[in-house]
Each structure stands twice: as structure tokens, then as C-alpha cells.
Amino acid sequence: MLKTCAQCGSAFDITDEDLALLDKVSPVVGDKKFALPPPTMCFHCRLQRRLAFYNARSLYHRKCDLTKQPIVSIYSPDKPFTVYERRAWYGDGWDPLEYGMDFDFSRPFCDQFRALMETVPLLSLAVLSDNVNSEFTNDNLALKNCYLIFDGERAEECLYGHTFAGIKSCLDFVVLTDCELCYECIHCENCYNCKYARYSINCSDSWFLRDCISCKYCFGCANLRQRKFCIFNEQKTKEEYGAFMRQFQTSSFPAAQEMKKKSDAFSLTQPVKAVRGEQNIDVMGDNIYQSKDSSSCFDCYRMQDCQYCTDCLVGAKDCCDIHIWGDAMELSYNCCVAGVRVRNLLSCYYVSEGCDNVFYSIYCSRQSRNLFGCIGLRHKSNCIFNKQYSNEEFEQLAQKIIEHMQRTGEWGEFFPPTISSFGYNETMAQTFFPLEKKEVLARGWQWGDFEAPVEADRTIRTSQLPDDANDTPDDVLNWALLCEVTGKPFKIIKQELQFYRDHRLPLPRRHPNQRHADRYGFKNPYRLWNRACAHCRKPITTSYAPERPEKVLCEECYLKEVY
What we know:
Mean pLDDT: 96
Distance between the termini: 42 Å
Radius of gyration: 25 Å
Number of strands: 38
Number of helices: 12
Largest sheet: 5 strands, parallel
Structural class: alpha/beta
Shape: globular
């Protein structure tokens, strides 16, 4: 079935497999099954819509509306919401059912849900544990001495990163697992003391790697396996490697930038595999592992019978259009940030921990079931718009609301960006689908203009910084530095400065948000193209667009090249 995207106007295909999975995840309320309609938007516009609800990394100072104490929150103080600090929100000092509303069949569902959002207290930070000295973080658990890291668990002494598990003393990263002392690394696993590495596993004491496994003391290399003392894929002696490293002025900003350019240029001469992934059966996607019978999934692990899922790192089954999480998730559709033994979720945001049969709800958890349009409920059942009903009443009213949403065209769609709690630029939508303010406003979406002032003794351009971090005075901690790309001011913190000095690295010239965007620029898009293998000319499906300069190989040719 060929359709035209209602948002971007592009043509997209809905396959028989898509329709079969939609039928499988269509909810049953009472004795009636409510079919989910085929999507009205293409995969990328559906993902963009979910991401426009997801603020992972924009943090602000404000006061808790219950305790009146100063807190850090994902909601800027100019937002029209009541916000509680995490412990107060999870505490017994308030009851979400006190904010219950009757459903009004003369109004669209989403308009009424936005009104409920402006009434029910919202959670200041999505933090699932008592972290230690890590107030400026979000969407995580089990952190100690961390700053501006998001979407992960178990980290110590880490700064400026996104998506992680089990890491220590890492800085400026995207997707690290079981790594230590890594800097500017992307999608690395079990690595130690690596700088500027990408898609590498079990590597240590190396610089500028790409797609390397079990390498040590290597520099500027790609596709190597179990090698030592290599420079741009050439074997060197230990002494030659040591002499090369002594000549490289690692703490010099111009020298580091020049070496990055040289490494990127060399990387383009080395082949890449059409898609990354291992231990898969009948899978189509990129960077997907240990999965089966799944299609159009990206950055996922342990998926089964899933479609159009992204960043589900801990597994899901029979799910479609899910961004982030999983972990024993089943039979769920069109959700963002949801997981841990959940079933039958539809168009939910941040619903977790054993929930079942939950529709169009946010921040609900802990074995709640039969919820429709609810916010902040825990251990509750048979609730609609935070109002308690009997099981029979719930089923009757839920059926009527679904029929109403079918008439308004809302049924099966995710919440629109127009009712998001955040400006588009505050959300992960801006990371994956960057837009200018005028473009966002032209679509009728929101833009966040709140900017907290940066207090500093002086403001300088980053071009005025000393070339070497070790020549930078301690006073830099009191300066506001102007990003060389955006012009936005940012500061260096003490823990960060010490890391640069200890590892002989230059101070950054870009705002943390710009560095975050730069790292995501190295990731392939969540998209697949058809092209031919550069060696055997066999047709392949790949995440590398046909116009890109990389030499893209099918798996068979890539393995022959690497091994």
C-alpha cells in the first residue's frame, strides 16, 4: 500500500507485514477489538513527532512547587506547569487522582490532555535512583559525580554524554558500554583509554579508531582485528609507535584538529560494511544485534518481531514505532521512552515497570493497568483522565473515547508537537531532525526561548584560549566561553579541566550542545538505501546513501577484506 505522508508529503510504503503487526498490537477493550489504522505519516515523521515530546538534556533551575526549594528540572521556569522535585513527586504528599477530569466529547482528546498536563504536577527529572553528586543529569539511574550525561545507567566521574551503561571517567560521548577513560567516542563497548574512537570493541590506549576490535596502541586505524602498534593501518614497532606519539602534540588544539581531518580522510579510504550488526536472523536495519524477524530497526538489541524501533537497547517483542528502552516490552505501539515488563501500551510517554493496557498516558508506572489519558499514576487501575472508575465503567467509557478519537483522526497517532511540554529545540527532535525557529513556528509547533544567564567574571571567544590546556590558568573556570559555531556562552567545570590536563587534551571550542550535535553527525541516519556492493556489485541495503563517498561492501566482501 503506497501512501503520501501527511506531514512531509513524501511517498511511503505500508507492507502486509506492517498491517499484520498493527493488527496484532491493536488493543482490546472489554469484548471489542479496536483496529489501529495504517500510519498517516512516514517513519521519519512519526519518529520526529515522538521525539518532539522527549526532552532528555535541556536542564533549568527553578523551584519545586510543593517544597518551594530550588531544584534542577527539565521544565524551564516560564513553563505553565506545576513541577515537583523527584522525591516529592514520588512521595505521599499529593494524590494524582485529586486532579481527575471528566471527558468532554465536544472537544478533541489532545486538547483535553494538554489541559490535564497543565494541572497535574509533573516530574522534575526522570531519574530512577538516588544519584550521588549528579544533579545536572536526567533520564538515568545509579550515577556518582556526573555532569550533563543523559539516557543511561551506572556511571561515575563522567561528563557530557548520551546513552551509556557501566562507564567510568568518560567525557564527550554517545553510546558507551563498559568503558573507562574514553574521550569523544561513539558507539564503543568495553574500551579503555581511547580517544576519538567510533564503533569499536575491546580496544585500549588508542586514538582515532573506526570499526576496530581488540586493538591496543593503535592510531588512526579502521577495520583492524587484534592488532598492536599500528598507525593508519600500517604495522609499526613499539619504538616507532612511541616516537610517533611523542611527536603528536595531543594537547594542542590546532594539532588535534589537523589529526582529526587526517584520520577522517584515511577512514574514507577504508571499506565499511553495508550495515552494522551481528547474531541476527531475518533482520533489516542498522546497528542491530541479537535480533530476529525485525525490520527497519536501528540502534537496537534483542528485538523479536518488531518494526520501526529505534534505540531499544534492552529488547522488545511484537512492538512497532518505539523510541528508547524496551526490557521485556511486548505488544506496544507508537511510544517514546517506555519499558521494563510493559505490555499493550499505545501512544505513551515514560510509562514503565509492569504497566499493562495503558493508552495515551505519561509518567505512569508500577503495575498500573487499564489507564487512558492519565498522568503520574502508580499502582492504579481503571482510570481515565486521572479519574477512578469501576472495571465496567472504564471499558464502556474507553470504548466511547476511542470511537470519538476515530472520528477526530487522533486514534493511533502519537501526541502532536503542539501539546508537547517543551519547545522543539529543547527536545531530541532537534538532534535528529534539526530545524530553524521559523520552520518550527511555521508548522504551528513550539519553540523554547528561555535562556538562563551565564554568570562569569569575563567573556572571551574560544579563539582567545591558550593553545594548550596545560597553559590555561585556573581562572578559566570563572570565564564564559563563546562557542565558535553558535556564539552561545558555556563554562568549563573543575572536573572537566582536570581531565583535559591529565590526558593532555585541548579545551573544547564549542558549546556542549554543539558538541553533542557534532557527535550525532557521525552516526548514520535511521534510513536505508539500495545500492551495489563496491566489490562484487551485488545489490545491498545500507544506511549509507548512494551519493556518500564511503566504499560500501556487502557482509561477505567486508569479512574477506577485514580477515
